[in-house]
Design brief:
Shape: globular
Number of helices: 12
Radius of gyration: 17 Å
Largest sheet: none
Strand content: under 5%
InterPro entries: DUF5995
Structural class: mainly alpha
Length: about 250
């Protein structure tokens, strides 16, 4: 991939394959495609400090998701964070929000720091911090908009907010801003590491722990999620179409 249009085309392929297979992997693909389109618009409008560098970051960043998807389909080894996200997509008992957050968790908490370091190629990491925050702001706006309108595909979703009572449940309290700050800290650690594979592996284990909490949030919350899931649309295709409409409106 050499351009953002190449990235969009690759994500389109994943969304189409998921749609044809009735695969919930398409939920995150739809959201991420809209993020990429928004980043492309930002580059065209000169919103970033270094637009050519942002193109490079966007391609490297997206490629981690696309490669993980392709390797998963081929039965190859992938990071544990993506493995949990993709494995969970097989299940019909998880709500739409869980599938979206599992993708976001793997992509921001693990992939973004790696992609940022690879983009800078040994240069001063701090130079990209402002654009790093801008791409996260775009993601935050889109995810927040989708979350606020998730009732269109999940009529009982408000029960989750009402009865989960916040506390420490990651499914309720998952924050893009917190993930962003953690991703930047990891990028600094990764850039300074003398053993990149080991640093990546340790981080992957931590982020997979978060993925496990998102996928299996405990008995009380799981019972509530089962109720919410029963009220969600059973058709993956219909859900994907509505998610695309919601994402485009943000």
């Amino acid at each position: 991939m050499e351009t953002i249009d190449d990235v969009i085309e690759a994500i389109d392929r994943i969304a189409t394959e998921s749609y044809n297979k009735d695969s919930r992997l398409g939920y995150f693909a739809i959201l991420y495609r809209q993020v990429t389109i928004r980043v492309k618009e930002g580059i065209i409008n000169g919103e970033f400090d270094d637009n050519p560098r942002m193109v490079k970051l966007d391609i490297i960043f997206a490629k981690r998701f696309i490669d993980a998807y392709d390797d998963y389909q081929a039965g190859k080894s992938i990071t544990s964070s993506w493995q949990t996200a993709f494995d969970t997509a097989i299940s019909s008992r998880h709500v739409v929000l869980q599938h979206l957050l599992l993708g976001i968790n793997a992509h921001i908490n693990l992939d973004l720091g790696i992609a940022t370091v690879e983009t800078m190629e040994g240069k001063n990491l701090e130079a990209i911090r402002n654009d790093f925050d801008k791409i996260n702001a775009i993601l935050y706006e889109l995810v927040n908009g989708v979350k606020n309108n998730i009732g269109k595909v999940s009529p009982l979703f408000r029960l989750l907010i009402r009865f989960a009572k916040g506390r420490d449940e990651i499914l309720v309290n998952f924050s893009i801003r917190t993930a962003r700050d953690g991703a930047w800290k990891f990028a600094e650690e990764y850039a300074a590491s003398k053993d990149l594979p080991s640093t990546l592996s340790i981080r992957d284990q931590v982020i997979d722990g978060l993925a496990q909490s998102l996928s299996n949030p405990g008995k009380r919350l799981s019972r509530l999620l089962s109720l919410i899931s029963l009220a969600e649309w059973r058709s993956v295709k219909r859900t994907m179409k509505q998610l695309e409409t919601i994402a485009k409106e943000q």
